[in-house]
Each structure stands twice: as structure tokens, then as C-alpha cells.
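Hey, quick one: can you model this chain's 3D structure?
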Amino acid sequence: MPAATRPRSAVGTACAIDFGTSNSAIAAPLPEGRTALVPLEDGATTMPTAVFYLAEGPGLQQLPRLFGRAAVASYMEGTEGRLMRSIKSVLGSGLMDQHTDIGAGRSVSFADVIAGYLRHLKTQAEAASGQTLTQVVLGRPVYFVDGDPARDAQAQAALEAAARAVGFADIAFQYEPIAAALHHEASTTREERVLVADIGGGTSDFSLVRVSPQRRQRRDRRDDVLASHGVHIAGTDFDRRVDLGAILPLLGYGSAGPAQPGQPAREVPSPVYFDLATWHLINTLQRPQRLAEVRALRVNFADLTLHRRLLKVVEEHLGHDLLGRAEGAKIEVAEGGVAHIDLGWVERGLAARVTHAEAADWLRDDLRRIVDAARETVTMAGVPANQVDTLFFTGGSTGLSGLTGALCAAFPDARPVFGDRLASVASGLGLCASRWFDAKA
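Sure thing. Here's the predicted structure for all 441 residues.
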């Protein structure tokens, strides 16, 4: 269990943060003595992991910013500034040490962006708790980075540094799917082997955990964690597939360049499209050198209309909107429907269409790898697939029926249980915080 030394100190100063790729939540001790999720926006206990730095108005050197739904709304309303989403994805990458432009001649490091978001969560929780919170349990995926233990450790260290920077003195980590299992255990009436499928925006994580009414009272649960495994494929990858499949071809992705005598036409270079389809890389296209790169691509297009559309999207900072529409289409077709994507603000009358069959085809390889990771988890535990009692779903991407159906088919003897898609992990982390940092334990 990936936890730091668990110090003993005053009861009531410990909270728990589920810092997610797409959405985040925080649980804290409330004045009535229970640990619970804290309302963050308009009464909601989860909010998008998004930050918007304002580039107009007074006090710009104090880096005024908005968070969550307010951040996304300001961007959609056309307010001058810089939107950042999927910021968790930079953990374990070289971007953590880099600064990024936020407009009006200012820049911030990605480490400061993450710390600022954690500080906002902490401030909200302290207002609800009525006291300073100095201890935290942070959720983490089974792997921040697949197949690279050094970078994985670097990612956890970077998140810990951000937490210390905002005032947390005692920090512990818990795997997110294990936290979800502990949340599920609160309602169990018998012993179960539970395969937790925590599939969010950035990772698909699995843990096979033994739970029961008797075991829930134990502080040390290491023996009950039979195996944990994961893969760095999830909701944001699904958004990317839909964007590349349905929307970006209308901007030239996959199109042919000018014909050359005696040579086949070459495909338009694709790196700019891959960045447009990746949440945490969209803003890199706002750099002057990247904008110059997009303008210079003109000679690679046989159809200059496609280049004109691409250039408009990059110059007018519309990449987040495009990817947001791909995300919406992914959700709309999840139940077998057809999504119509209006792109009239790029060019009058421009639109894309996504069918359920097309989306299933684009996501097929990703879903196969996710199911393979679930099977591997059970194999690692040495447990036959037919001895998994419960398949517990949590994470925003478990709202996709094709995904959950594929996992249920892989474990047909397991009882499917759907937890709170956005809050089960945070609730389980709250249980960890109250147990680990309890001075009476």
C-alpha cells in the first residue's frame, strides 16, 4: 500500500483529495464530527479539474484565475485568458518543469498550476471544516506512467511537492481503486472478492480486494489487497479518438497534399492534429513558434480550405472547444445513438456526424487493452475469473455501456455494481484519512 509514514496527531485536521484527470473532489472533517465530501461548486461535491487564467481586467500580476465549471464557462464565453484541463496528465512528464504562457506577458510553471488547484480545494475544505487542514491522503492511479517505475515515482513526488507547497505537512497516498473498494465495503453484508474497475479520464485502474463487514474495522488492509494493475488509457483517450476520427479530418487530418509529378501525394503532417486532440497539449499551439509552424503547413495542403479551417482553430484558440464537442459526442453515442456536431463557428454549415458503430470501431483497441488489464489483475492475484464475486465500477468513463459491457463479458460470474462514478474514490479516501490519521488508532 503506497502510503507515507502515518503520523499520529490531532483528530480533525486530515482530509482526502481525489485529484482526477477530468474531475476532482475533497473529503474533510465537518463540525458535526464526520468526514464527508465538501461542496465545491453550486452544491456539487465534484468539479472539473480545470483552471482558467484571466488575461484581462485588474490585478493581472496577481494571476487571477477561475476553477472548475467557472473556468470552463469563462473560456466558452470568450473571455480573454488561458484554459488548462487534464493537468494531472503532466505529472511524470518533462512539462512539470516548464513554464507556459497565460497571456498578458505572464507565464506560470505547470507545478504552480497544480499547486494552485490543490490550494483551491484545500481552501474550500477548510471553509467547510472550520479549521486548518494539515494532513492529507492523496489518491493516485496504480500507474501514473506505464512501464516506467522511475517516472512513476517522479510523478508521485511531484504531486507530493505540490501538496506540501500549499500547506500539507503529513501526506499519504492510496491507490484510487483500493479507495473505491473501501467505499463499497461500507455497504457489504458478506465477504466478497471485489474487482474494482476505476476508469476515469486518464487511467484505467483495477484492484482485486477482499472485503467484508468484519474486515472493514481493520486498520492494516494490506493482506486484503490481492492484486493491483492498470493501464494509461481512459476517457481522455476516448475523446482523442473521436476528435481524430470525426472532427479533425474536416481540418485536414489524414488528407493528401499537392500531387507531385511521378510521385504519390503525401499526407499532411499530423503532429499538430495529435496535439489538438490531447487536452494538456492544446495550449502548446498558442506559442508563437507553433503558430508559425501551423501557418507554414499551408504548402502541404492540396485543399487550402482545410488549412484555412485549421489555422482559424489554432489562431482563435478553439482547440478545447473542439475536443469538448468530441467528448460530448462520445457520451451521446454511448447508448447507440447518433451525435451531430455543429462546427458552424469554424465555417458556416460545417458539421460532423458520429454513429455508434463508428465510435465503437475507433475505441475497439483501447477497450481491448483495458479488458486485458482487468484480466491480468485477476491473474496476478492467482484467482480464477469465475471466483470474482463482484465487479465494482467507478470513474467517469464507466458511464460508457460499451466499456462496462466488455468488462462484464470478461467476468460473467461476477455481480456488477455501479458506485458513484465521480465520488466513490473520494469517499473511500476520506475513510482512509479518518483511519490513518486518527490519534486514537
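One thing worth noting: The two ends are 18 Å apart (CA to CA).
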